[in-house]
Known about the structure:
Elements: H1 21-48, E1 53-58, E2 61-84, E3 89-94, E4 101-102, E5 107-111, H2 114-142, H3 148-173, E6 176-178, E7 183-188, E8 195-196, E9 201-218, E10 230-235, E11 241-250, E12 260-267, E13 279-296, E14 301-303, E15 306-313, E16 316-328, E17 331-336, E18 343-347, E19 358-363, H4 368-372
Parallel strand pairs: 1-19
Antiparallel strand pairs: 1-18, 2-9, 2-13, 3-5, 3-8, 4-7, 5-6, 7-9, 9-12, 10-11, 10-13, 11-12, 13-17, 14-15, 15-16, 15-18, 16-17
Amino acid sequence: MAFGKHAIQPLVKSTIPGSLWPTLALVAFILSACEVSVDSVDETEDEEETPAVPIETAFPVRGNIDAVYSGTAPIEAFADATVIAKVGGEVREILVEEGDDVIGGQTLARLDGDRLRLESQQAQANLRKLQRDYQRNLDLKDRGLISAGDFEKIQYEMESLEASFDLARLELGYTEIRAPIDGVVSQRFVRIGNNIAIGAETFQVTSLEPLVSYLHVPEREYRRIEPGQPVSIHVDALSGERFDAIVARISPVIDPGTGTFKVTIEVSDRSRRLKPGMFGRISIVYDRRANVLQIPRSAIIEQSSGSTVFVVVDEIVERREIRTGYTEGANIEVIDGIVDEDEIVVVGHINLKVGSTVVVIGNHSMDKATVDSDSPDNGSGN
């Protein structure tokens, strides 16, 4: 096929004159630079607009703080006696019931004493007969009508009969079962009509004043615990009610098997809400510091270099190293590192960094009266 000289034409033909290409390139470069500049400004604004970290704070307070050794132990009766029958017989009368107060020597029950009463009367009659014989022989001895050996024989017989009569009276007295100590009848083991033998248990008498607890303390605390130190006992069975007590005695020896020594604690409870067998949380106060600076223990961050806290200064946090002392309840004594006016971070400080911007959303500060109420002498303990 034959083609003309204009038969072949370009498929695409540029519509932009060649003189405009440099201008377009310059415009594209300017737009690209503007985009980079805008991105940089956005990033800077993001960094500047980092939100403040919400925290809760507390101001240090001053108050008394106690050094306390804490432990747990059951509450026991100081004296607890099982009343044993000293003679056998039938129970004829019961004079007390469980829960009754008794005093030492009070009659609790009576046994059948007919046989012992007759034996006592017989011993008394024999003694009286021999006493008359002794008086006659004494007159004969004074006139030299009886030998000294015969008189001594009568004298020994009379002494023997006196002992037999005293024994008969004693056994007759044992038919009245008596309380050996002051206290309360905690158990009764007999009933009317029971025949009991010698040595049978009849009653349990428990002394409720004072009550005691025996706390076994590690030997490292031996030099800190002394008789007379105040003690607080909290009893869970009574909704944590607190009772005042005292260190009564300290064992002079250390148990080599456990490495502990025994501390006897006495508690007086006139209301009788405390009962033997209840479990108590015991706090012994062995030292007290007055008007010391305290903060919540939750504010402290423990590090290998020591204890630190975060302090808020103009909405920025700073880290402070502190030196601590006694701990009691939720509070801890601060010896050095902060002052009364420092605002301490207590919640939200775990992920804080030095220089972080913060916003305070709550304050946990307590007044001095609240701090003092945490001491064992004011209703709480460790």
